[in-house]
Amino acid sequence: MLKYLLEKEFKQIVRNTFLSKMMVILPIMTIVVFPYVTSQEVTDVKVCIVDNDRSQASQRLAQKVEASGCFSVAGYEPTYGKAMKGIEEGSAASSAAKRALLVAACSADIVLEIPRGFAKSRGRGEEPQVTVAANSVNGVRGGLGSQYLSAVIAAFAAEEGGSEARAAQGMAAGAGPATLYRYNPTLDYKVFMVPGLIAVLITLLCCALTALNIVGEKEAGTIEQINVTPVPKSLFILAKLMPNWAIGLLSLSFGVAFAWAVHGISPLQGLPSIVLFSAVYILVASAMGMVISNYSDTMQQAMFLMFFFLILMMLTCGLFTPIESMPEWAQKITTLNPMRYFTRAMRLAYLRGSSPAELARELMWLGGFAVVLNAWAVASYKKSN
Predict the structure, then answer these.
(1) What is the pLDDT, as a whole number, of residue 40?
(2) Tell me: the pLDDT tens digits for 207-222?
(3) Which of 120, 229, 251, 335 is found 20 to 30 A from 3 (Cα to Cα)?
(4) Nearest 5°: phi and psi at 295?
(5) 253: Cβ–Cβ under 8 A, 6 or more apart, which residues?
């Protein structure tokens, strides 16, 4: 009997041209496009410079800021007040000559004020106070931009000789701890995001496919033909799960292939963990879709419930915000989110090459969710004549 149910499901999938298109389009959008549009890397930060010193040293600092690659000089202002007015009013005047010292109010994200006597203070071995004022309406851009600029200023101070007092103590200018970045040496944000986006891809496809498939049969009336037969509920649910499981693994292969071809990100020795966790998580996501469909009578109800839970899961799985940075009550809520454990397992398997044994805790949680949700799907499905 299972053979005929599976034959029916696969025939429905083959006849559904929309599904075959989505199996290709969704991985492309999720893995190829989303890493760029969701990037939190800050580039092209506009800096307005107030050079009160107008010395060679202040000009070298301005040149270093512009040459850093993260900043572009929006213009120069004669006073700090005018520069701040440009930020507050957002005026869009631009400089015709980048080295012109007096320009109409410039629109910028950050104001860099170089104090009067900057070069003389450095000549005496002092560290003059350079002011950095950031427009924090966009907190991420303003905060990270000011941190980047502070790092550029510190590097300039080290290159220019740093503090005479430190030099007298035998410390080389610019000396500091050597930082080694493990698992993501270039600190590429896409390397961090892509494994999590593969989790999003599998969740979207498997959950939506199951939920809309069953509700679609309800609206078409074809599910009544199954309900009047002696097919057990567990067998019916299994017949719905198996095709989705195959489609989920196929979408995983697409996601891994696109991540390698476009971003150069490969799972290396973590591939066994990725396949194992994906196989278990597909059962979880598909069971969620079945539970949603069991409580929905129309396509609109199913879509509303599905996207409500999907958005909630994505926001609390640690995809964009570290779970450790959330309030304590929110961290407790995330323990009920299966996507949290799958996202973490995917990142560790991708970046660190963790084995299933090292991820045993996450595997136990996902296995528990799979058992509970599938049992719920069987229990909540109602066969009505």
Answers:
(1) 67
(2) 888 888 888 878 877 7
(3) 251
(4) -105, 10
(5) none
Separation of alpha carbons 105 and 102, rounded Å: 9
Structure confidence at residue 208 (pLDDT): 85
| Identity at 98, one-letter amino acid code | K
Specify whether the CB–CB gap between 96 and 63 falls below 8 A.
no
- Cβ atoms of 374 and 285 within 8 Å: the answer is no
- State the pLDDT at residue 6: 77
And the tokens for 351?
């970046």
Q: H or E segment at 26?
A: helix 17-27
The two structure tokens encoding residue 197? 């986006």
What phi and psi values does residue 74 have, to the nearest 5 degrees?
A: -80, -20
Residue 11 is inside which H or E element, if any?
Answer: helix 2-15
Where do the domains of the chain lie? 2-38+186-380, 45-168
How many CA atoms are closer than 13 Å to the CA of 235, on its beta-carbon side? 12
Q: Which CATH class for the 45-168 domain? A: alpha beta
